[in-house]
Design goal:
The chain is an alpha+beta fold and 274 residues long. 16% of the residues lie in helices and 31% in strands. Strands 3, 4, 6, 7 and 8 form a five-stranded antiparallel beta sheet that branches.
Length: 274
């Protein structure tokens, strides 16, 4: 950000008291489009929170895009155009945080730093089914790379997931409370941000074109998995959401894991279907 270190600290203190979000308009620069930049830090000790997920939402809180912070907690979020947006930030092991409504102009770089409060592990009924290291080790084997290297990676469990389950009227509503894109045309479409970006074939992701006649032809529906088994998107409401303990999101793919899932076992391919 521009300005002296003292100015930045004052800005951070004023915003952190209420929201844990420090906001500042950076000096305009020549850009092809707007951009939001900032850093995610631990509210308890000021340490950087690396690999946090940053989600861009429109004024109606519809997810538009997602990026991951780097290992030092810095992120860069492109903005599709001038308008009003929210930023939502989360990382496994922390409570999520959301910015106030941001008014983004025609050009320039907007700064938004976030503080995340550590989330203590809870006992039943908010039992943590798998710790951060076990989950990321499992997904590293599943994806063939560390999950933080996979576009759009988020892992949701604990208090964050439990609160969404209590608010949700159905499974589609649950995804919306978790800021996971979901829509209904002639078929259900989950996990797509509308980019139609193909992921590596070796990762086993399967995509289908959106069936809605009004859909953008470049938009693809994402894949839905339950305990490692590929499901048809329209079967989402047949899943017992009270048993879902972990939700893993990558770009175009939503993976639900139940409390009965064996994290010591890696499924061979994507055998079976639901």
């Amino acid at each position: 950000m521009t300005g002296s270190p003292d100015d930045r600290r004052m800005t951070g203190r004023r915003r952190s008291v209420a929201m844990g979000v420090a906001l500042a308009v950076w000096a305009p620069v020549q850009l092809a489009g707007q951009e939001i930049r900032g850093q995610v830090v631990d509210a308890a000790n000021g340490a950087s929170v690396g690999l946090a997920a940053v989600v861009l939402l429109d004024a109606d809180r519809t997810p538009l895009d997602m990026v991951a912070a780097d290992v030092e907690g810095f992120y860069q979020m492109p903005v599709p155009g001038a308008g009003e947006y929210y930023l939502f930030v989360e990382r496994l092991g922390y409570f999520e945080n959301e910015s106030p409504l941001l008014a983004i102009g025609e050009s320039g770089v907007f700064g938004a730093d976030f503080e995340l409060r550590p989330e203590p592990f809870r006992l039943d009924p908010l039992e943590v089914t798998v710790n951060n290291e076990t989950l990321e080790d499992f997904l590293t084997l599943e994806f063939g790379m560390h999950p933080a290297s996979v576009p759009g990676y988020r892992a949701i469990q604990g208090v964050r997931l439990a609160e969404a389950q209590l608010k949700a009227a159905d499974n589609t509503d649950l995804l919306r409370w978790l800021y996971i894109p979901v829509s209904h045309g002639r078929e259900v479409c989950v996990g797509s941000y509308g980019r139609g970006t193909a992921l590596p074939e070796r990762m086993g992701y399967q995509r289908v074109m959106a069936a809605s006649a009004s859909a953008d032809p470049t938009t693809q529906c994402g894949a839905l998995y339950l305990d490692g088994i590929l499901c048809r998107n329209e079967h989402i409401e047949s899943i017992d959401r009270s048993k879902v303990a972990v939700v893993v999101v990558t770009r175009g793919v939503v993976r639900l894991y139940t409390r009965d899932f064996d994290w010591t076992f890696r499924p061979a391919g994507n055998a079976g279907a639901c």
